[in-house]
Amino acid sequence: MTSSNSPAAAGGTFVNLASTTSGYIILGQYQNPSTSATTNEFTVDSKGDVTANGNIASAGSVTIGTGGTPIAAYVSTTYSATLPVLTAGSCATLTTAALTGLTPGASDTVALGLPKSLVSSLGNNVFLIYQAWETTTTASPTITIQVCNPTGSRYAGGATGTIRVDVFKH
Questions:
Q1: Whether the Cβ atoms of residue 157 and residue 86 lie closer than 8 Å to each other
Q2: Quick check: helix, strand or coil at residue 8?
Q3: Residues near 103 by Cβ (< 8 Å), separated by ≥ 6?
Q4: Per-residue pLDDT of the chain (170 residues; tens, 9 = 90+)
Q5: What is the rounded CA–CA span in Å between residue 24 and residue 21?
Q6: 158: which DSSP letter?
Q7: C-alpha to C-alpha distance for 70 and 65, rounded to whole angstroms
Q8: Cys-Cys link to 86, which of 2, 119, 149, 162 (CB 3.0-4.6 A)?
Q9: DSSP letter (8 states) at residue 118
């Protein structure tokens, strides 16, 4: 074991001395006690790529890619929708259940995953526009989903599907 009290030094350093950029710097394995078979559960390869067979949790933010924007939290929920009748140029709002544990912020990103059933085969010359936002600024907000019919045709309603709602806190 290596340790350090210096804020400028690592508590431990692992060096792969292989002559190529292959192999592992860190390899965590599980050994089945009855068969002695091993499984790689956690690895850091010589390029710095991390692989884990399980969940990864972070108490801080996560940045994906070089120059990516840190994500401080990610919350996801689903909403089972049955679309109402929408006359030409009208909108309707849908509201999700409260997102327990989420405290909304000024720079959150709300993304919708729409099933095919809510965006295609809606009728002759009909297409719908969806948008979403956090309904309140208090903890555990709901998400408002607005669906609009910008066409000159009436939408008869009745399409059903499950909308995925993802909130990324930055």
A1: yes
A2: coil
A3: 139
A4: 556 677 776 667 777 777 667 778 888 888 888 998 888 888 888 777 888 888 888 888 888 888 888 998 899 999 999 999 999 999 999 999 998 888 888 788 999 999 999 999 898 889 999 999 998 888 888 999 999 999 999 999 999 999 999 999 88
A5: 9
A6: -
A7: 10
A8: 149
A9: G
Alpha helix (H) ranges present in the chain?
Answer: none
**Tokens of residue 28, six digits:** 């965590």
152-81-140-60 Cα dihedral, nearest 10 degrees: -90
Beta bridge pairs of residue 74: 168
Structure tokens at 143: 């998400």
Cβ atoms of residues 26 and 12 within 8 Å: no
Does pTM top 0.70 for this prediction?
A: yes
Contacts of 106 (CB under 8 A, 6+ apart): none
